[in-house]
Write a structure and sequence with these properties.
With 347 residues, the chain is mainly α. It is built from 15 helices and four strands. It has a two-stranded antiparallel ribbon with strand order 1-2. The chain has a two-stranded antiparallel ribbon with strand order 3-4. α10 runs parallel beside α12, α12 packs antiparallel against α13 and α14 packs antiparallel against α15. It is elongated and about 80 Å long. 25% of the residues are buried.
């Protein structure tokens, strides 16, 4: 059977091969049973049946289809009722044991749904967060403690991100857990270091760094420019590195430069010069590197705006115009953009 292939985010994805009539009949029978069980569960929900039997039915159905949002809502109602009863009718030690078992069971269910069914299941990730938010901490003034194991939750996030580094559900959940646990921004920078060193194309990790850097500190920005430059020289065709590089350049000139002013401090001007030279050195090795030329064009625009001079460039405006012509040859799909930049430089 022929299998069609298409790409998403630069990754090949194969369509499912044709299914035989016998397999289709088996699937239809399974779907029929699943639909009947789903109808029973919805009837129980409508009848406000919050029994253990109904709860177990939601477990079975959600293990098969974790994107059945209504059943998650039904399950949460039962869980709140169970939680309330545990607080009212149990001794303190027994209460904590019951609640901890409840938390562990729900976290296991959602982990199985995410790992085995759909790693990007909105409903599963939301339910996991809901469990930690509502039952994860005992807020009693006399016995305030964390019930959920937040270190294990972070470890689980690391595991899922190793399988799919762009899983934004997992990134969002990680952010939530970090806020619950408390963390140092430097620790999160170190975490992104490990991901980027494993794969320079990790867009999510590069973006994550932007949330925790002190962009007012020029030394921090210089350190980041050196870090991303190493990635650029290793993988000069990798778009993610260049996008981060451009963001850093915009931060270098954004703090001291008032939109109505055209002045910049010397240490920031020096950083711009160093990056322009870095691009020149890369172009000596990769003469047709689109991204190096594109970055250099942006740097020339900055140099024109703030009057920054580089020894190797006599006239930044002329250099930028010539670069636009080169980019139109290297990157003809964006010719209109380079014409627009050319016009802006001439103003």
């Amino acid at each position: 059977n022929r299998v069609s292939v298409w790409k998403m985010h630069g990754r090949k994805r194969a369509a499912r091969a044709a299914v035989s009539k016998e397999d289709l009949d088996i699937q239809r029978e399974k779907f029929g049973k699943l639909r009947k069980l789903s109808e029973i569960a919805l009837q129980c929900y409508k009848a406000k049946d919050y029994s253990e039997k109904s709860f177990n039915l939601t477990t079975k159905l959600l293990s098969i289809n974790p994107d059945f949002h209504t059943l998650w809502n039904y399950r949460r109602i039962i869980l709140k009722k169970t939680f309330s009863e545990a607080l009212q009718h149990s001794e303190v030690d027994n209460q904590e044991a019951q609640i901890k078992n409840l938390i562990e069971a729900e976290l296991k269910l959602t982990a199985d749904c995410i790992a085995n069914r759909n790693p990007k299941s909105y409903s599963s990730w939301y339910h996991r967060r809901w469990i930690v938010e509502h039952f994860g901490r005992n807020s009693d003034s006399k016995n305030n403690h964390q019930r959920a194991d937040l270190k294990s939750e972070l470890a689980l996030c690391t595991k899922f991100l190793s399988l799919d580094e762009r899983n934004f559900h997992c990134w969002n959940y990680r952010s939530f857990i970090l806020k619950e646990k408390g963390f140092e921004p430097s620790d999160e920078i170190d975490f992104t270091n490990s991901l980027i060193e494993r794969n320079f194309s990790n867009y999510s990790a590069w973006h994550r760094r932007t949330l925790f850097l002190d962009t007012n500190n020029i030394e921090t920005l210089k350190g980041e420019l050196e870090f991303v430059s190493n990635a650029i020289f290793t993988e000069p065709a990798d778009q993610s590195c260049w996008i981060y590089h451009r963001w850093l350049i915009s931060r270098v000139v954004s703090v001291d430069a008032n939109p109505s002013s055209y002045t910049i401090t010397e240490d920031r001007a020096t950083a711009i010069r160093e990056q322009f030279i870095m691009c020149q050195e890369l172009l000596e090795l990769e003469a047709n590197s689109k991204w190096a030329m594109f970055a250099q064009l942006f740097l020339l625009q900055v140099m024109v705006r703030f009057g920054i001079q580089v020894e190797t460039v006599i006239e930044p405006r002329t250099e930028a115009k010539n670069l636009c012509l080169k980019l139109k040859d290297v990157d003809p799909l964006h010719s209109n953009y380079y014409d627009f930049v050319n016009e802006q430089i001439a103003l």
